[in-house]
Specification:
alpha/beta
């Protein structure tokens, strides 16, 4: 872990033994869909008449479409790609500095919170890596103007499509695998006191993550197959300094910590209710908080936090809140240690749970 302030604030600082994931980025064709023009013939061509093969047929669809991009001037020049990456790298450096400041400010919210561990820290960093702040599409528009490109061009349409949802970013090379983040966080917090382990893990883990991301993009800056123009543009927009301000990071971290406290921390809590004064030692009721899957009309399942009450062989459930997709892994991992039922996570119908909402599911609810 870097010990000097300058090194700590520079994601380009060299670190050893950083694994490079071999994720293959989706091609521009996958992002935008195939648009192949069908030749229209005014009259039938007699059988056996020689017909010239089209450029698409000769080159293949992928090569043909790439050639079309080159002809229309949509493709970024190598100088434009390098300039875009350089600006984004400065944004990553600023992001690390601001993330450290934000982490220091939210540390008090985690301080002395039982259950805060490397898994939570890695989850917070992973969320930041794929999160798309509001306004990121406007940044992409500004990039188009600076590059002298049309926002309606194929590459910019593909970049806008990538920035539509965070799960699209997560499926590309524009992030670092979560298991690698967990390893970096664990290494970064080793040797620190329990009070500072979370904070140190956040700082070191984020530093290694943004450095690894910058290195991965740099290694592929000349490889358009591995790093299409659209991916590079989306990367530059997401890590623009306007999108990585301290206040933005702090708000997102605080939001996630509250979700964790509301939906993960309560898992496993239980209360035993004993009998009357006549039989003071007899247990009459047990209440336990945990997660269950709730079946939906479209055959999907939503993850919910509930309180189960058991009276002998009878059991009832009361809805507490939905678990977000961001907290899904943490909630399910904790439920393994504190299961709602000995057979695992129960699957229930909405009618099995009192106070279950009739309204449509929240957008970010965890599903299966």
């Amino acid at each position: 872990m870097p010990t000097q302030a300058n090194a700590e604030h520079d994601p380009q600082h060299q670190h050893d033994n950083l694994g490079q994931p071999q994720t293959v980025a989706p091609s521009l064709e996958r992002l935008m869909g195939k648009e192949t023009a069908q030749p229209q013939q005014t009259q039938a061509v007699p059988y056996g008449t020689p017909v010239a093969a089209s450029e698409e047929r000769i080159l293949g669809k992928q090569a043909f479409q790439k050639n079309v991009v080159q002809k229309t001037g949509d493709e970024l020049t190598m100088a434009q790609r390098q300039s875009t990456f350089t600006k984004a790298s400065l944004g990553l450096s600023t992001a690390y500095t601001n993330f450290v400041d934000a982490a220091n400010q939210v540390h008090a919210e985690l301080k002395a919170k039982e259950g805060a561990n490397a898994a939570l820290t890695a989850s917070l960093i992973n969320i930041i890596m794929i999160w798309l702040p509001s306004g990121v599409s406007n940044i992409l528009g500004g990039l188009a103007n600076k590059l002298g490109k049309s926002q309606k061009s194929a590459v910019f349409k593909a970049a806008y499509h990538l920035l539509d949802k965070s799960d699209k970013i997560a499926s590309t090379m524009l992030t670092i695998p979560k298991d690698q983040i967990v390893r970096e966080v664990t290494v970064g917090s080793t040797g620190a006191s329990s009070e500072k382990a979370i904070l140190e893990g956040m700082k070191f883990g984020f530093h290694k993550t943004v450095y690894g991301l910058a290195e991965k993009i740099d290694d592929n800056i000349e490889n358009r197959e591995q790093l299409p123009d659209a991916h590079l543009l989306a990367f530059a927009a997401k890590w623009h300094p306007d999108m990585t301000q301290i206040g933005i990071f702090k708000a997102k971290l605080s939001e996630q910590i509250k979700m964790w406290q509301d939906t993960v921390v309560p898992i496993g809590e239980h209360e035993t209710v004993k009998g009357s004064a006549i039989e003071p030692s007899r247990v009459t009721m047990v209440r336990k908080t945990g997660v269950v899957w709730v079946m939906q009309k479209n055959n999907t399942r939503a993850l919910c936090l509930v309180q189960g009450t058991s009276k002998g062989q009878d059991a009832s459930f009361r809805f507490l809140r939905f678990v977000s997709e961001d907290m899904k892994d943490l909630a399910l991992a904790k439920s393994i240690d504190s299961p709602m039922h000995h057979s695992g996570t129960p699957i229930l119908e909405p009618t099995d749970i009192t106070y279950y909402p009739n309204a449509p599911l929240p957008k970010n609810v965890a599903k299966d």
